[in-house]
Amino acid sequence: MALTAAAGCGYHVLATNQVYGMTAIAVVPFAEDMPVGLSTQLAYELSSRLAAGGLHVVTDESAASAILSGRVISAISSVSPVAQFNATVPAYDMTVTLTVELVPKNGKAIWKKRMVIREDFLAAGTIASGTATGPQADPTLATEVNRRRALLRVAEQAAQDIVDALLIDSTTAPGSP
Q1: pTM above threshold 0.85
Q2: Strand pairing class (31-32; 66-79)
Q3: What CATH superfamily classification does 24-167 receive?
Q4: Virtual CA dihedral for 33, 94, 142, 124, nearest 10 degrees?
Q5: What is the longest distance spanned by two Cα atoms in the chain?
Q6: Contact 73, 103 (CB under 8 A)
Q7: Do 30 and 69 contact (CB within 8 A), yes or no?
Q8: Residue range 113-166, pLDDT digits in tens
């Protein structure tokens, strides 16, 4: 019973109790080709969004009619082109590439997608010596905190994109209810 979705205009799929005829979905943390620190948060965000949309999300894979899983292929941070023009605080672009699939108990994937999510974050600003404590006192640590916050935003955006694509594709697939 997915109702509506339109890319980029603020509308999202509202609710359904099944995808591709599967009623109980287990979400497992994505494999990471390189340690990124994204998979646990992404699994949490996916589970939350699927459950909020009406799907039965289970933690026990043996109780699931299908497993939603994937792989984080890459997460690359590079200096933003905007930051190259005399910016006072350098900015970075993060590009995360991932694949996701829905696999029923029979073991053959019934749905697969490859996605690219982009997010930006700032490097630490200039800090006067001895005037800050905590992460702001160490520019490297402050930049890492900003990168991790960007990863959280990537997990949220990726989860929403995955859920939208999964539900739309499921409702438009031949033979869907």
Answers
A1: no
A2: parallel
A3: Lipoprotein like domain (3.30.160.150)
A4: 150
A5: 66
A6: no
A7: yes
A8: 999 999 887 776 544 444 455 545 577 777 778 888 888 999 999 999 999 999
